[in-house]
Design a protein that fits this description.
Number of helices: 40
Largest sheet: 15 strands, mixed
Family: Belongs to the ATP-dependent AMP-binding enzyme family.
Protein name: F-box domain-containing protein
GO biological process, one term: fatty acid metabolic process
Shape: globular
CATH topology of one domain: Leucine-rich repeat, LRR (right-handed beta-alpha superhelix)
Strand order of the largest sheet: 25-26-27-28-29-30-31-32-33-34-35-36-37-38-39
GO molecular function, one term: ligase activity
Keywords: Fatty acid metabolism, Leucine-rich repeat, Ligase, Lipid metabolism, Repeat, Ubl conjugation pathway
Structural class: alpha/beta
CATH architecture of one domain: Alpha-Beta Horseshoe
Number of strands: 39
Distance between the termini: 79 Å
Length: 1150
Amino acid sequence: MSGVKARLSGVLGHFSTASSTPAHFEHRINHHTLSPTFFLPRAAAIEPEAEAIYHITANDKVLRRTYRETADRARGLAFYLKKHGFKRVGILCPNTPAFLESIFGIAAAGAVNVAVNYRLKKEDIAYIFEHGDADVIIVDEEFVPLLETYRSQHPDVPLIVDSDTDATEGELTGPFDEAVLEGLKYDFDNGAQGWEGLQSQAADEESIIALAYTSGTTAKPKGVEFTHRGCYLAALANVVESGLNYHRGRARYLWTLPMFHAMGWTFPWAVTAARGTHYCLRKIDYPEIWRLLKEEHITHFNAAPTVNTLLCNAKEAEKLPKPVRVTVAASPPTAHLFEQMSDLNLHPVHVYGMTETYGPITKGYFLPEWDTLPLKEKYQKMARQGHGFISSLPARVIKTDVSDGTITDVSKDGQEIGEIVFIGNICARGYFKDPEATRKLFAGGVLHSGDLAVWHPDGAIQILDRAKDIIISGGENISSVALESMLVTHPDILEAGVVSVPDSHWGERPKAFVTVKQGKFLDGPEVITWARNVSGISKFMIPREVEVVAELPKTSTADSLPAEMAPRLLQTGRSPSAAPSETSGSTSPERAADDDTDFFMAQANDSQSSIGVANFRDSHPQNVQPMPLPPIGRLPPEILIAIFSKLTLPSDMLNCMLVCRGWAVNSVGILWHRPSCNSWSNLTSVTASVGKQDSLFNYADLIKRLNLSALGDVSDGTVVPFVQCKRIERLTLTNCSQLTDTGVSDLVDGNRHLQALDVSELRHLTDHTLNTVSRNCPRLQGLNITGCSKITDESLFVVSQNCRQIKRLKLNGVSNISNRSIQSFAENCPSILEIDLHDCKLVTSPSVTALIVTLRHLRELRLAHCIEVDDSAFLKLPEFATYDSLRILDLTACENVKDDAVERIVHAAPRLRNLVLAKCRFITDRSVMAICRLGKNLHYVHLGHCSNITDSAVSRLVKSCNRIRYIDLACCNLLTDHSVQQLATLPKLRRIGLVKCQAITDQSILALAHPKTSHPSVSSLERVHLSYCTRLHRGGIHALLNNCPRLTHLSLTGVPPFLTQELTKFCREAPKEFTQQQRDVFCVFSGDGVNRLRDHLNQHESSPHEETEATMYDDDEELDEDEGQMTGLMNATVINDGDDDYIDVGPMNT
């Protein structure tokens, strides 16, 4: 007792002597309770109109919500829960806005969040909701059937169903929205307290905010207790460790990680704390993920190695222009995966953790000196689990063989193996209703991970194996013990053993070995069928391979198979009852003869599509029986291609060819997938090899891309050697003007792999060629027949019916086509993204309406010079329909399109980025006012020859659409200096066209040279078109040149002060087709000519008025995130022969 008294005395002494400042226990100024719920009202107060949520709803509508709207909806749900007294709220939803809003609303109501993995069996879902004492459940409409078991036992627990179709602001589409509205009304009726009436800061920061259930890797899932304080600190740690507040502007976080998984690693709170945008994703959809990465410029996402592997191998994969931070966790990633991700500008941030640590708790911190290491060593270091988070104490590795339970660290030598343990702020409180499991978790005063690792001298930890029998497949935890226990419930199974086997997709997966009871017979497929239909195994746990064996290896005490005996099991002999022709009970499907190619085609980076993947069986001479391959020869072609594509020295490639035949085939395949045919000598060499008989390699089958466009004079005879190439995927014959139906049809005939065909400007082609395409090319995705004027509706109609995967269609100048073929494409080819109909004069409004309404993914629609298109094309669109995919619309010279149509276009396509209305001469300021509603989405607008537009409309456009980069107002004669002075304030303006705007003066040019912006910076102007602006003088242009260092094009045709020999010597040459009169007034400075003109004026002219010294880029200046996103802008068009560069702004590619 004396010891106890002494400790009590010490505590009392501390209270009396620790500080001379009186304590204020009832209100501590230097302390506030921590709750992550506070992050949402805080974000809404700071940036109420900032975008909080982007989502494609269940009915394929685009939903965007601001932080003000999101905070209001979360507040409404919170008051609804308070009104009805709900304290434990279950969630069964995919990654939807409703899930995100519920996370904040439940906590704000002082309730506990019980989110469940919707991939579990109905029985497991029922167990979790019952164990967690759920008194109401928020459920997605799709997942209501998963509650069948639970509802049969708890029929009185109410459901709040979310239909996930609420894509219209203010629209109520289901019970969840109704609950939000009811809560908002309840708040209003009771004093309108708002967030002040909720627990945005918890009364007790150590109280439970959520129960995060494990995946049932033991007998039953455990509920991990997350506290307000723990989630707050874990979220802030993730803001720092994942760099959510690092990027300029706000983070754009893509929800590839399930929100139910350890409550989304606390990222619902972390992203909100950084005021980022949540990009919600109902399911993993790799084409959609790549679309969001490219179009929405995602900056961050979290994913397991499995997801990243499939993402890197998706056919849409290509290197991104800006880096994306990818937080990687779950099963240990490979160094190869990190290299693959880095090549695509997906920068991996490797973390490690568990549900009991709120998700990540360690990070592999990248050190600058690693950049000097060999790539293999660099990525191996990146794949380590690293050091503890900033909000936790350092991770430790302790000895596992200390008998008295003492916590003793292993040596930091990278050799001694121990168990990873944690202490710190982001260790969970314990297990709900399970004190015994909590005691074991915290035995010895540390949190035990159960994972075995070594501790490196630099303090980094690295996992070597798992102490528990857990298989992590695709990010899901699978208990081998639980799976074995379930398998032995089969009436014919005596014993079962489950081990982990590598899997190229899922990282690892379970494989089961079973023994059969005496007198019974069983095979693998029968066990798998039983597991799917009878047992209580969750779908993701079902093994894809079950092998029947005579005996399972056991320990000396006949205990069940431990993880360390897995190698023995994998080497165990097969069942003696197996037939000689099939000595395994494995149910893995046989690889088809062409599986290699088909898989790689479907999954590969598009820039390397099917590089060198040859059919190995076909490469053997028919009369030679292939020898059994050594292990190194059995490497999948995908891996070989990844290796060979990194080789640069011919000697290295030669050495690879000599390893074995499989390596040789794939090495040669890399060299031959796209043979160089850019000269006649190269072509001769290629055709000679293709024509060789009895060659070691079948070169004809290795060619995947054939491009003859550089040769020009190609004839039917030239392409004869390539007729035997039947695996071509991309065929480019543009400008091969001597080719006829015979040559092209022979190339296409029998080529069922063809995906893209470009025969533009082959004016001899007729319907015969396209009929051949329709019969042979079911995979066709891209077709360019620009200028093939002899082609008619007849063949295009057949193509539309037989080639239904078409995505890009260019029919420019195909003057014989009409509504019949266009409407057929709309009906039969739902994947079309881009369609060009320039100068298709027989196409009328009904076709345009059909294209927009039917093609839900249509991004680019070009109708230049389709003179029969009028207002009805757009006025007949469904009244409330929107087409959010449409980004580019070109209506050049569609004179019958007027203000009514423009207003409907803007309403129907609110995300238009490029809008071309050149020569739509009847539109007025009313159209421009409508265009203003496009706001920040608008980047390119062309209003040339729209002569009714006035200064007031332009001023309004500048104020509403401040991200405009390219604008053309040629021949808008009513515009004055006031319009240009307003346009000069656009911070990102790169190109401006003012041809024949004869009212503008030097005041306009000085405004462009010295824009009055709120954030002064170097001018971004690159091209300025001022031809026939006759009131301009040298002084203004001199100032423009000296203050626009990026200027590369300046047109001053017909501007008298510049039509002198002194200055025109710096011009580029006039086009050859110009008349002498046109040559006399031609004055266009490009490239180095601009610099020479600037230097000349600086030497011979006085300093221009108000010249600044801004002649260089700022050191810290970065290109805008949308740079380079202007897709395939319109071909150059001229007013007449004398107007040199009316809209000649050049092509801009995506």
